[in-house]
Backbone:
């Protein structure tokens, strides 16, 4: 079984990487998230970047949703069937929603994109 860690190699870190997903990737819209996905077979695994702007809320709320999304990604990573860069942008209405509902939403969006085993 593979490790369920969330390492630096699994993160988008530079502005250029985020812009590449925005320009070349496919956008999937949900009720609580926008997910941009850019498949790339040259990557060692799926990489994720999380964008939480000030519209989302104060620093505590932004950090909380980033932790939640990272945890959902970490636990789901073994089910990804494509190698891709992914940018996840939570919508402000996600603040008031419980984590099981947010988890379902992300899984639905990942399934729609074809990146996740059904």
Residues:
């Amino acid at each position: 079984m593979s490790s369920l860690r969330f390492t630096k190699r699994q993160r988008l870190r530079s502005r250029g990487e985020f812009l590449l997903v925005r320009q070349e990737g496919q956008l999937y819209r949900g009720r609580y998230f926008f997910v941009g996905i850019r498949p790339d077979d040259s990557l060692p695994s799926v990489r994720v970047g999380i964008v939480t702007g000030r519209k989302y809320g104060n620093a505590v709320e932004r950090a909380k949703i980033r932790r939640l999304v990272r945890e959902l990604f970490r636990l789901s990573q073994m089910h990804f069937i494509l190698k891709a860069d992914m940018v996840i942008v939570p919508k402000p209405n996600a603040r008031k929603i419980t984590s099981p509902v947010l988890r379902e939403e992300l899984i639905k969006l990942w399934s729609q994109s074809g990146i996740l085993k059904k």
Remarks:
- The two ends are 19 Å apart (CA to CA).
- The mean pLDDT is 91.
